[in-house]
Design goal:
By secondary structure, the chain is α+β, with helices and mostly antiparallel strands. Helices cover 13% and strands 25% of the residues. A hairpin with a 2-residue loop joins strand 7 and strand 8. The chain starts with a helix and ends in an 11-residue tail after the last strand.
Length: 732
């Protein structure tokens, strides 16, 4: 860059203060200005249209663009650049005069996530950076933590990321060749940089599976893998209570799928660990290898458990190895555990290249972290866990919060917990954060994710009343529909020993915009992240409000019935703002995953009960209502395709009468129809989250297709992303 370093540094500092004060405007602050000041850009130019409209109604100037009157309730740019009063003789630069290279320099030195918001509502900023793609790339990097911009360009990507107006579902075309039969509770993983999907195991209500499949996510073609004649593979099993069953770990330049535990066909759980790979080879060359503990290691196999968490700990160096953390859970006696185990391929003797002789096993075990000094969290299950790299201390942390376990100072074993802990992977110490959820908000089965140095907690459920917990200890209580944020940089501070908890830190309730998010209570939901954690997707889970007080409400492992699972179009995308009230959220109903496509059957009379949530699809005369979600008020008597009175939520907020053929239920249509969400690979967050669900039946099959004599349904693959689909990919 031709600009001298000293001059660039001065201008960088001045413009940084300028934009920070403009950010105060965008956050809703009001600063009075002299009515006689001459301003090249009005106050309203820095505000979204909704805010400007609100100012007009309240009597303010509310100018929306550069063409509005310069005289009004606004701050002179000179005042923004200086701590003194407005000075008309000042030669401070305004947004109209900023060269693109200066904005690029600012983007390289200062985090400017607000710059994208300004350009979306301010013509001057948009014009200044329209031809400065490197500036937008810097903004994109500040939002996503350095993830490479999308092919559509950084400017368009930033806008889509901040507004979420391009969030959509996309379904892969059905495979014309062989494909796996539909099953639920299988282990589904993404690998090879998000280009392949791995499916192992699962069950369909009548049988358990032990087959392994790979799906090419570019074409949707399935191929069966590791089907060797010696049948060396894990026994049939599913993973309904085992945090997905496995993850993909990187070791040097190779990737391996690691599978642990599961509910086996005879009805018991084991603690076996299996490896599938190398995943860098063609799928036909993949093979299963059992992981056996080294001879000199005692007690390396974890206790068989369920309701635990499996957390991927990404490597910090390109040539390093990923790790897998297993924490907590219930043992065979339904007693909560604290046992923390770590699994890595660092010292494993893996077959790096294909050879004529296959290895019998891999000598590698789980390292134990039970001998730690200092305080430790109480044993728990149904808890939440996530990984976090602290930028100031340069240390990796395993975060754990909430859950179901013994409360402090109490005798209740199945109490809901409200504490938050961090395990320092470098020192091997547990750190208890000062932050606790407010009284009455302790929970278990919550979704947890890290986004831009903030810990996001969504949903979950209360514990059952003490009288009911005696007979049904694992049955969940009423579900939450809230979102909470915890600033990790303020909660954990660097110290001489690495990290220490701050004396004061607190969870903040995140108030999502009602016009963009019609929220639902959910427990057991999954929190997936996209683009380096810039976007959090909360999807899946169950509603516990309608749980009957009967044994069939949950199975023997405390898992809810499939009919209470939320459908995929209830997925919520969240972008965390600088403050909780600036957080953006949107329900992802655009497009349609296979599980709620246009060819699906209309909801049954049993599903059209009062208060049931429905998705509106397929309207032609009122197309603007498509994608809305409402609740059933009443239904006409007669045939199932009669009209239903539906109360739409914001932004429509009105009641309509609609035919059943244009509705899709927000709950799983029947037992065995709950989708399975793929766990991301070792490469970290990608640009899409993949889900498998039962494929839509062909027209004419109807309800009779569920009879045992009919062919089983196939697996369908869908994904959700927040960026526009590139034009060259076309429509799937």
């Amino acid at each position: 860059m031709s600009m001298p370093h000293a001059e660039r540094r001065v201008l960088t500092s001045r413009l940084s203060r300028y934009l920070c004060r403009v950010a105060c405007f965008a956050r809703g602050l009001t600063i009075a200005a002299s009515p006689s000041s001459s301003c090249g850009l009005p106050f309203g130019a820095f505000l979204p249209a909704s805010t400007a409209t609100r100012d007009q109604r309240s009597g303010g100037s509310g100018c929306r663009g550069a063409s509005a009157s310069p005289h009004g309730t606004g701050m002179h740019p000179h005042t923004l650049l200086s701590d003194s009063a407005p000075d008309s003789s000042s030669d401070a630069p305004t947004l109209e005069s900023l060269p693109p290279e200066l904005i690029a320099a600012i983007g390289a030195y200062v985090k400017l996530p607000w710059l994208g918001r300004f350009a979306c509502c301010c013509a001057a900023v948009a014009g200044a950076v329209r031809h400065a793609e490197e500036a937008w790339a810097a903004v994109w990097a500040s939002l996503t933590g350095g993830v490479a911009p999308a092919p559509l360009g950084a400017r368009a990507a930033v806008r889509s990321l901040l507004t979420l107006d391009q969030a959509h579902w996309r379904s892969l075309p059905g495979s014309s060749g062989e494909a796996p039969d539909w099953r639920q509770h299988g282990c589904v993983l993404t690998c090879s940089g998000g280009t392949r999907l791995i499916l192992f195991g699962g069950r369909d209500g009548r049988r358990f599976f032990c087959d392994t499949w790979a799906c090419d996510l570019a074409s949707g073609a399935w191929v069966r893998v590791a089907a060797h004649s010696d049948a060396r593979c894990p026994s049939p099993r599913c993973f309904n209570s085992d945090s997905g069953g496995g993850r993909v770990l990187r070791s040097g330049e190779e990737e391996w799928a690691v599978l642990h535990g599961g509910l086996c066909a005879p009805g018991y759980r084991d603690s076996q660990t299996w490896l599938l790979g190398p995943l860098s080879h063609p799928p036909k060359e993949w093979s299963w290898l059992p992981a056996s503990p080294p001879d000199h290691v005692e007690g390396a196999a974890p206790v068989a458990r369920f309701h635990h968490t499996l957390t991927l700990l990404p490597r910090r160096e390109a040539a390093g190895d990923d790790s897998l953390a297993l924490l907590g859970g219930h043992d065979r006696t339904i007693s909560p555990l604290l046992d923390l185990r770590l699994f890595s391929l660092r010292h494993a003797s893996l077959p790096r290249k294909a050879s004529g002789v296959a290895a019998a096993s891999v000598s590698v075990g789980w390292s134990s972290s039970t001998h730690v000094l200092g305080p430790a969290p109480s044993p728990r299950a149904f808890h939440s866990a996530a990984h976090y790299d602290h930028p100031a201390a340069g240390r990796g942390l395993l975060l754990a919060c909430c859950g179901l376990g013994p409360a402090a100072g109490g005798e209740e074993v199945f109490a809901a917990l409200d504490d938050t802990w961090a395990f320092d992977l470098s020192s091997g110490r547990w750190l208890e954060l000062a932050a606790r959820l407010p009284h009455g908000f302790a929970r278990s089965r919550a979704a947890l994710a890290v986004s831009r140095d903030r810990l996001l907690l969504a949903g979950g459920c209360r514990a059952r009343a003490a009288a009911l917990a005696t007979y049904l200890p694992l049955t969940p209580g009423p579900a939450f529909d809230d979102v909470w944020l915890l600033d990790l940089r303020r909660g954990l501070l660097p110290s001489e020993l690495g990290l220490r908890p701050a004396a004061v830190s607190a969870w903040e309730r995140c108030v999502l915009p009602h016009e963009r998010a019609h929220r639902t209570p959910h427990a057991n939901a999954t929190a997936g992240t996209l683009h380096g954690g810039a976007v959090v997707l909360v999807l899946g889970g169950h509603d516990t409000f309608l749980s009957p007080l009967a044994d069939e409400a949950v199975d023997s492992f405390g898992d809810l019935a499939d009919e209470q699972a939320w459908a995929l179009h209830e997925t919520e995308a969240i972008v965390v703002g600088e403050r909780p009230e600036r957080t953006e959220a949107r329900l992802c109903t655009r497009g349609a995953p296979h599980s709620c496509g246009e060819g699906g059957a209309s909801p049954s009379r049993r599903q059209l009960v009062g208060g049931a949530r429905m998705l509106v699809q397929g309207l032609e005369t009122q197309a603007h209502i498509n994608g809305s979600i409402g609740t059933v008020v009443s239904r006409a008597s007669g045939s199932a395709d009669g009209r239903v009175d539906l109360a739409l939520g914001p932004p429509h907020s009105k009641s309509i009468s609609i035919r059943c053929q244009h509705l899709r239920p927000s709950r799983s249509e029947a037992r065995g129809g709950m989708p399975t969400i793929a766990a991301p690979g070792g490469g970290g967050d990608g640009s899409a989250l993949w889900v498998i669900s039962p494929a839509e039946r062909a027209a004419g099959e109807g309800r009779a297709a569920e009879a045992p004599s009919n062919p089983p349904r196939r697996v369908a693959v869908s994904c959700i992303s927040v960026l526009p689909q590139p034009e060259h990919e076309g429509s799937a």
